[in-house]
Amino acid sequence: MQQISAARASARDMPIPGRPGRAARRSRLIRLAVMAGVLVLAFGAAACGSDGDSDTQASGSGSASGSASGSASGSTAEAACEPVGDIKTAATEVDAELTEWSITAPATATAGQVGFVAKNTGKEVHELVVVRTDDMNALPTKADGSLDEEKLPSGALIGEIEGFPAGESCTGVFEMPAGKYALICNLVETEANGEVESHLKEGMKRAIEVKA
Ligand SMILES: [Cu+2]
Predict the structure, then answer these.
(1) Among the four given CATH numbers 2.40.30.10, 1.10.443.10, 2.60.40.420, 3.20.20.80, the one describing domain 6-211
(2) For residue 20, how far is its CA from the centre of ligand 1 (angstroms)?
(3) Which residues are near ligand 1, the ion (C-beta closer than 5 Å)?
């Protein structure tokens, strides 16, 4: 039995280029979430129900995705889908399947507003992070094997669909110029026996090339 803990959340507590305060805000929220999970859950549900009116970065601009509320919900077993942008605005749609321990997606996509339809066919919460990189096997990682987003080159972090539950689908629209990218799940969880499990290290990564 895996226990979703603050470790999962903290591993995702990473700054987005241009938004230096985010990590700190997330960090505080995560601590709050741990102390008052029920309260945070209530907020998360409210944010989801507001249909685009939440503080989720929904522009699809690719500069950042998700939100403080997303990260807080990701720290609980009740992570909920928070769509990034409006999938109807995507120029193309790409299906991605997330499970233990793989990400399945087409090898190529068309540049522009790329809409990901992510389906979690596994048993655990998963997320979809889009990173621009020529080599997904050369991404900077932390000691636990998770992606060290702070060490990514500026602009390499395109965006992410925050963790959402098994059996569900979630969408995200990201502006993706032609280039090489990786889709990864960067969740980290600490199991009851203290073992730390990085979904990336377990194999949740997939290269995708975006062509003009
Ligand atoms: Cu995962």
Answers:
(1) 2.60.40.420
(2) 25
(3) 126, 185, 187, 199, 204
